[in-house]
Amino acid sequence: MPELTPRRRLLVLAICCLSLFIVGLDSTIVNIALPSLRADLGASVSGLQWVIDAYTLVLASLLVLAGSTADRVGRRRTFQTGLALFTAGSLLCSIAPDLGWLVAFRTVQAVGGSMLNPVAMSIITNTFTEPRERARAIGVWGGVVGLSMALGPVLGGALVAGLGWRSIFWINVPVGVAAIVLAAVFVPESRAARPRRLDPIGQLLVLTVLATVVFGIIEGPSAGWTDPVIIGCFVAGAAALATLIRYETRRHEPLLDLRVFRSVPFSGAAVIAVCAFGTLGGFLFLNSLYLQEVRGLSALQAGLYTLPMALVTAVVAPLSGRIVGAHGPRLPLILAGAAIAVAMLPLTRLNAGTPVWLLAACYAVFGFGFGMVNAPITNTAVSGLPRAQAGVAAAIASTSRQVGAALGVAVIGAVVVSGLGGTAAARLAEASRSGWWIMVACGLVVLLLGVLTTGRRARATAERAGADLLEVVPA
Description:
It is a single chain. By secondary structure, this protein is mainly alpha-helical. It has 20 helices and no strands. It is 81% helix and 0% strand.
């Protein structure tokens, strides 16, 4: 990639953030429309879970492939292809005639979305090469992603209230078209000097692991946990995982280079991403149903209730990037874990009469924790691999996020369905309490790993893991 002027670098960052904004927005904006979807399309709770997880599941499965493909065929080309698919998928979702078609079109969106997140991060990493400047750029990226995900319920509420649930997909179309044009004009093409080979068998195994496990979790409560199909899903998932580990460790250039997990900070960042984004996915899923079906709020009112989370996330996420650039990831991770756990704790006693001020306080504290967690995850991931493999590094971190989001919706939704009795509105608050406790535990895991994986010994293992990769894969 040629050396760019400071103004051009900022413009590239803005274009990448523009595309990531609609992807992050789409991952959460749908949650606020779930009650409307349920009424309009006659969807069950498990059907609503699939509207969310069809997107995150496919996204998680293809992120690593997209990152390595971009390193090979060109990052700008892959980025523009992803924008085109995501935009087309959004348009199709807006005209879906029933739940089945909506789920199918969400997968089209996800294929395009998988080419945006890791590729944009790879472009940013190769544009901002100075470590401190890169950390700040990642902080801006984290702020945009965090803001878009937090704004999803607010903007979605306004759109659903004014134009109906189909309008939440319309917003992606003009932004996507604009990003395609801007990328063609201002983003330079770049490739890795030595890209990885494609690994179709590894890709199929990754998809099998995620699809079987998520399917089993979502459908288990309704089919019965002892149903042969559900048991078969978990057995197939375990077998695919074992095969994946064995197969990938024997390949010279695997889809998932398991050596990166020798780095304690990198492994810790992956687990932190799963826990943090699992909490986000579970929170948005449960909270939307609670506000509209238990408290009887409109979609717009429900979106406005989450505004404290969006505002705090927008302020805190760039600050987290600056802290990481100046002092490292330890403090942001500790603050994030503590805030997430503290925010979720009062919600374990949630009911129809919970005071509004308490809800607002919990949402704000959760926004603080979520805003803090994004930048240290990404910075650890892209710092743990050679810069030429930035697409793969960012893809692994992004995969962890999406796996967490998918599992959060699947697990929390399964817990709620298992506890429901009578009408959903009458029992939802009580049935969801176990789900909130799971999210408290996730916050504590983030806190603990933030302490354990950012010390001197952990940094030493990261340096050794990076040196090991450099011996095999030149930068």
